[in-house]
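ok here's the first one, seq then struct tokens
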Amino acid sequence: MHKFNLVENAKDSLSHAIEHLGPVNQNSTGDWKRIIVDLAHVVELLVKELLRRIHPAFVFNNIDKYPSNEAFTVGADLAFTRLQKIGDISFSDADIKAVKSAREKRNEIEHFEFSIENHEAKVLVGQVLSFILKFAKEELELEWKSLYFKEGEKWCILYEYKVFYEAHQKSAQEKISENEIPTIECTSCHNDSFDLDNEECLICGHKEEVLDCEWCGASYIYSSCEYDEKACLCPSCEWEDGYATVHCEKY
């Protein structure tokens, strides 16, 4: 019989990510793929573990099906919502952005084509890792930081990614403030750090075309739109247009 509880499962995925981790310029596309998928898995398992500690039924989509092993468990989004509403847990904007970045890139890897620049990947790993270590310690009382100095060089490299992200984020925010750079939310790291003038995120380096909404005139990043690529609407106006179409009987 082989068995992992949620914490053991999360730790194993973190260890697996570390096995593929090397200096940023030496990681292959396959390495980044495994690292990002594993870290996203760690996030999901840890938030489920906190739900389980509140009550095991909350881990399931349909709590009435508890304790069936065949019932579907919650995803990270629903887990976050339940922790806030039921567990009275507060998440910072940074926490939410880290989890969103990990989930979106994991979905891209698992369900579609996958591409990422070295710098962008390094920022994503550091961003998600910062959340994992903070959440593990503050909410679950898991002292995983101590493992950095017990498990050899790989753990030290992982820690460097966390330090890199936090230092790079601070530097970018100082640059934005000092130079009054106009920014919007980046579609990759979800920080408010996408330089509208240079069409590049000052934190993760993601580059993409910036467009102006034909309805409200607001600037938006091309990939932030979900529906009609020819509509030339920002996500907010796109949503309003879609809502009006679906609920046309109200108008």
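and now the second one, same deal
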Amino acid sequence: MATQSLSTPTAVKRRRKPLQLGGYLGLVVAIAIMILPLVWMFLAGFKERDEIYTVPIQWLPGAYDLSNYAAALAAVPFGNFFLNSTITTVIGAGLKMLLGLTTAYAVVFLEFPFKKFVFGLVIFALLVPQQIVMIPNFTLVASLGWINTYQGIIVPGLASAFGTFLFRQHFLTLPISILEAAALDGASHWTRLWRFIVPISAPTIAAVALVSIVSEWNEYLWPLLVVDRSDMMTLPVGLTLLQNNDGVTNWGVLMAGTVLVTVPVLIAFFALQKKIIAGLTAGGVTG
């Protein structure tokens, strides 16, 4: 009887409660680790220099003053940096999406020699650190005369193995009957991709777009290598001009500039997050 009582649904629920509480506690700790630095960065943008160095930490500023933001905008050409980042992000993320879609379509729906080997190369590319190919890429870009140009920033990073892999895994789950019916109607591969595949792949496209936009916008090391003129700097690289302004780092001004860089990414994140949820919800409704 005692053994039977331990296997009742009530006993199982009681055993699960500590595991659930532990999971929730770990989730709260993880969220706090991610959120607290962002909160401190946002609040530090309103603080005076002395308030940032107080011990213990003074979280709230004495007065919410926008002087740090004004100083950041006056110290460096943020408008020019923002334009450069927008151009490289829109073009770079857009081309990554296009190349990922077309490559994944070819790997899944076309028949050609060594198809599995080609996909193996895509997987291998995921394992290669960016730092390994950085010097050869820089040598090639320099030989082409692409230093301090948009193409020098964008082109070396267009091969998106992550996007190709994610699209390929999603395309394998699609019903092949749709494409077979389209082929019988005389639709070309390009028509099948844009008229049938893309509309039903909205969640995956939104996910890849989000990763690509954030990656392009936050890219720092590569633009730092290929750009040495202030008129071609992107926002992450331009922030370095604030770090040693007047010989002493004013962390309030630097944090204000960092907030200005982060806000567009957050807007893109929340906008595409809604599309991902809407696409998943629409795909789950049947009948």
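notes on #2: The mean pLDDT is 84. The radius of gyration is 25 Å.
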